[in-house]
Design brief:
The structure is a homodimer of 286-residue chains. Chain A has 286 residues and is α/β, with parallel strands linked by helices. Chain A has 11 helices and 9 strands. The first copy, chain A, has a 6-stranded parallel β-sheet. The first copy, chain A, has a 3-stranded mixed β-sheet with strand order 7-8-9, covered by helices on one side. In chain A, helix 2 links the parallel strand 2 and strand 3.
Chain lengths: 286, 286
């Protein structure tokens, strides 16, 4: 496999918010970026605005063979389907990576079907916005954010290093590494559980009038309640067991705090608040 | 009662983050602001930085009698105690207001003990920060925020109008009015419930290592998990029934969503996400 560097040619498959933000970040560094997306307007917008050098709504052999790195920014199931249909077009030694929000099931499935002469290194950029499409893409979402590489035993040291370098070129602040299982447990907690909470807050009662009264707390806890139902329901289902476990852990703790309030156990309630304050402080320092 | 205007003299009792932010906002408008606080450093800091014109660590008769409006920015129980001890020093026709985060119990208790020739109009500024003290005060927290006046039948039209004008002078974007019962139900939901959720997220498992992996969702949902345990446990206990009710409503909805995920009821899950998205959009437009 070629070393990833500024000369590497990147193909983005799926030019939505994340794919578009990848393209912007890498084009700004002076790299050659092409893209494939079924939506004609996305390709036209990206070409017109200098986000990509080359684009197509069709799967073009030449574009695929020209790429050193192919980034899949598709819904999980579409990603797997795409690999099945078009992997015969890959150049040997191409690095394949992705942005998928769940890992274990996807990584296993891709490795099971993928040609042995190309390498897939899974990655999860921990960045996003509550809006969609290349028109809303913004490479600044990567500043200060975490990029998680999720390798398996089938990956080479070279492939993993190249995937990490991509994260650095994109502008992420921190490059981390987790196993697929660790990733899915972590994501069940920090991302999927928090989305379930935000949704529940918005749907548990008729709160449309509250906008006239609320402070920032409610706004903060519900920002992510604007959610793409197709993408997120797919992600939830693909990570069902880890998510249910995290929901149960959270609910147990929430019930404990409810119990302290109901029984006036103020000292125990304060202990929870002190622990919460101490732990949360860590997140502000970094 | 005198009309509230730019000539009104304001006394702040309790010069912490909120009291200090009130003082800054009103001093910047050119108003005469004095303050009483037991912490000597707070008074010295505020005098030195032009946040107040006059200050004392003692309860001074002259300062109290000179004020047209007295704002209590104290913990709820300290506020009630203060009124009991020092209300004999009030001038007739003084407007008394507060910033207390719970209303029904406080408003009832204050009205039960207060002299009949001064008027107390309760208010709740829906603004704050996760830091404390006059040194961290910042009047910009009121920009774009909601100010809720919580009158009872014992209040006069004049008193309520003066209290609302104070909110306008402070720089709040929206002045609303709720009954004490409505206020406490609302605050149980948008503020206290959200704090319980944030605390639970931080304390339900050992998550100190997560800072290397997490994205913005978890940060957003736990910002308010840095919490002053003395103030918030007091507020929770004073609004116990409303808070427990809101916790139960939330938990029931969260369980419903868990059920949809566990049973693969994807269409029902998507319906919740669509409703959540639609409702949350209202909060972005205003």
């Amino acid at each position: 496999m070629k070393q990833f560097d500024i000369e590497s040619k990147i193909l983005i498959v799926g030019l939505g918010l994340l794919g578009g933000s990848y393209a912007k970040a890498l084009s700004k560094k002076g790299m050659y970026v092409s893209a494939i997306d079924i939506r004609k307007e996305s390709i036209e917008y990206a070409l017109k605005n200098g986000i990509i050098c080359e684009g197509s709504t069709e799967v073009q052999k030449q574009m695929i063979q020209n790429a050193d790195v192919i980034v899949f920014a598709l819904y999980p199931k579409v990603f797997v389907q795409w690999i099945k249909e078009y992997q015969h077009l890959f150049n040997p030694d191409t690095l394949i990576t992705d942005v998928t929000g769940v890992k274990k099931c996807i990584v296993d499935e891709i490795h099971a079907i993928l040609r042995s002469d190309v390498e897939f290194v899974a990655a999860h950029p921990m960045a996003g916005r509550e809006v969609y499409g290349v028109e809303n893409s913004d490479d600044r979402i990567f500043n200060g954010a975490n990029y998680i590489v999720v390798p398996t035993e089938q990956n080479t040291r070279e492939g993993i290093a190249n995937c990490k370098k991509l994260g650095i070129y994109l502008g992420f602040a921190r490059i981390a590494e987790l196993s697929p299982e660790e990733h899915d447990e972590m994501i069940g907690f920090v991302s999927q559980l928090t989305h379930c909470i935000a949704i529940s807050l918005m749907t548990c009662c008729d709160n449309e009038g509250l906008v006239d009264y609320t402070g920032d707390s409610f706004r903060d806890l519900t920002r992510i309640a604007r959610i793409n139902e197709n993408m997120w329901s797919e992600l939830f289902m693909l990570n069902k067991q880890a998510l249910l476990t995290q929901m149960d852990i959270f609910m147990h703790e929430f019930q404990t705090i409810r119990h302290f309030i109901a029984n006036g156990e103020v000292d125990k309630l304060k202990d929870k608040m002190k622990l919460s304050t101490k732990r949360r402080a860590l997140f502000d320092r970094k």
